[in-house]
Amino acid sequence: MTTTKDDTRTPAQPLLELDNVACEYKLDGGGRFRAVSDVSLQLGRSEVLGLVGESGCGKSTLAKLICGLEKPAAGRITFDSHPVKPLGLGRRPNHLLGIQMVFQNPYASLNPRRRIRDQLTDALALDSDQTWTVDSLLEAVDLPLDAAQRFSHSFSGGQRQRIAIARALAAGPKVLVGDEPIASLDAFLQARIAKMMRDLAIESGASMIFISHDLSIVHEIADRVAVMEAGGVVEVGSTEQIWNDPQHPYTKKLLSAIPRVDGKGIIPG
């Protein structure tokens, strides 16, 4: 089943909320660099939020903050009424297992020494109410059932990314964060994988933050869009509003760079 977008939806009761969040890094020569500055965002239930901007604008840092992989220098992140705290050396708190991430590099995100079945089984064990099985997960991401017995080196980049998506879904997430999950794939696969992520997230009852520098693909899958520039969010709106009536000069700049045919962005097939 394929889901459709609802561009009018707003997160009246947000599942995830960022309130004036900032992140800083120490510089080798002294001083600090602020990678994310005063970002406030909300993610609704069963919503897909696209986060777009050029490379280096802070998108991936924001994703790590949401998942607890980075410590905020200021502000607060709340998920399902619980504060999101940076991960320590111990086990991740159960209430934060509802946030799962699909990373950009499918070659680094899977364990090369363990069979795919074992990696999916580990993820399934994180959710006691899970209805997925290893076989149903592989079917959901269009992979043959015998893939479970193989190691990650035997798969292409697109297949590995589909396995990474299956592993994230296996944990029963309420929020799926895709950090440039299609950037390393060829143009033919990018739109397919993006749409697959949206459909699987929504059909499983999850929300999704899809991070990309490609506004054309985000237009196809997102309900709302947040535009980042130089560490800050400069504009947020429904996908159609951002696409047809952008307000910020930077958003207009991003849109002007997209090839157009009859007024529509070119989407790879």
UniProtKB/TrEMBL annotation:
Q: Which InterPro entries match?
A: AAA+_ATPase (IPR003593), ABC_transp_ATP-bind (IPR050319), ABC_transporter-like_ATP-bd (IPR003439), ABC_transporter-like_CS (IPR017871), Oligopep_ABC_C (IPR013563), P-loop_NTPase (IPR027417)
ABC transporter domain spans which residues?
Answer: 16-255
Top-rank taxon: Bacteria
Alphabetically sorted, this entry's keywords are: ATP-binding, Nucleotide-binding, Transport
Entries under SMART domains matching the protein: AAA (SM00382)
Which biological process terms from the Gene Ontology are attached to this UniProt entry? peptide transport; transmembrane transport
GO MF terms held by the record: ATP binding; ATP hydrolysis activity
Q: Does the keyword ATP-binding apply?
A: yes
Q: Which family does it belong to?
A: Belongs to the ABC transporter superfamily.
Official protein name in the record: ABC transporter ATP-binding protein
State the species of origin.
Brevibacterium aurantiacum
